[in-house]
Amino acid sequence: MFPLFPFAAGVLAGAVALRLLKNERTRSGLEKAQDRLRGATVSSLEAIEHASARAREKLAAAPAEAADRAAPGSAAAAAGEAAAPAARKPAPRRRKPKAAVRPAAPGEESPS
């Protein structure tokens, strides 16, 4: 007897859903929600397209600028300016850390 209750509830819920879908007001609400979702999707895809186009332009411009700076026939080299990199000072050597001094326990002499 108990397995019939969920079945009857499912049949009743299905009948109510079919009546709502046949209702013009519900159908128009679903269409409106679908249109909003479609519009949001289109606008987000356009934003992604514009962002990727800007990134592509920046990435394409960066190698071209680097090639212009490195080219021997560039305007800076023709003007006689030195394009040599600045001399860098070597990094200081790392020192070994000093051994930690253990504090003297009561009754012991200090190691120093």
Question: Quick gist of this model?
Answer:
By secondary structure, the protein is mainly alpha-helical.
What does this structure look like?
The protein has 112 residues and is mainly alpha-helical. The chain has a domain at 7-69. Helices cover 62% and strands 0% of the residues. It has 3 helices and no strands. It has helices at residues 4-22, 24-70, 75-78. The longest helix is centred in the middle third of the chain and has 47 residues, at 24-70. It is flat. The model is unreliable at 76-83 (pLDDT under 50). Residues 90-99 have a biased composition (Basic residues). Residues 60-89, 100-112 have a biased composition (Low complexity). Residues 56-112 are annotated as: Disordered.
User: What percentage of the residues does DSSP assign to strands (E)?
Assistant: under 5%
Q: Helicity, in percent?
A: 55-70%
Q: What can be said about the biggest beta sheet?
A: none
* Total strand segments: 0
Shape field: flat
What is the terminal-to-terminal distance?
91 Å
Stretches with pLDDT under 50, minimum 5 residues:
76-83
Structural class: mainly alpha
Oligomer: single chain
Tally of separate helices: 3
Give me the strand/helix succession: HHH
Output the keywords.
112 residues; 3 helices
Structural topology:
Blueprint: H1 4-22, H2 24-70, H3 75-78
